[in-house]
Amino acid sequence: MTALGTIYNGHQTRSLEELEDDYTELKSTNEKQEIRVRHHRTKAESFIVAFVLSQSLYSIAISVRSSSSSSLKSNEWLLPFATKLLFSLIFFMAFADAVVTFYWTQYELDINYMDLEFLHKKIVEAKYRSATRSTTQSHSVEISSDHHEKRRTRPDDVRLFGRKFYIFSMVIMLVAFSAIDLYSCWLLLCRDN
Hints:
By secondary structure, this protein is mainly alpha-helical. The protein has helices at 3-7, 16-67, 78-132, 157-190, and strands at 12-15, 140-143. Helix content is 76%, strand content 4%.
């Protein structure tokens, strides 16, 4: 649960200054969260590039070795194939961790942006109320979820679906790449045997 969710559950009276302080603090938190989101996305993309390059280089090495005069014997194909398969599995575990971390960090950032929007709305309301009140009343505002307002507590489903679809598509493409790469490795190693 976000900080705003714990602060604003129930009815509390908050001054305009407190609301502005909360807004500034949440905005600062969001800036740090954006940096984390970019870091995790870059990490996942770097895993993809490193995987494709390393698998390609390994395939070239196998191709050169299998086309040379010292062709592999029929029982020697298993070691390069198993190495490639093991590397693919290790990569996939690291990639999955980076992608899941990216997804949830972005999800939390989306919730923080909704909280920031809610706080901004309350600040505008507080400024409007304080401008219309007489100077004898205090400058505080009631923060609650009244029956007129429904506050979203979850990011947009379309954006979440789009993000999940992107991640799923990348995973499917990488699995397909790995399968084709492993099949080509097997063909190169066993074509003469």
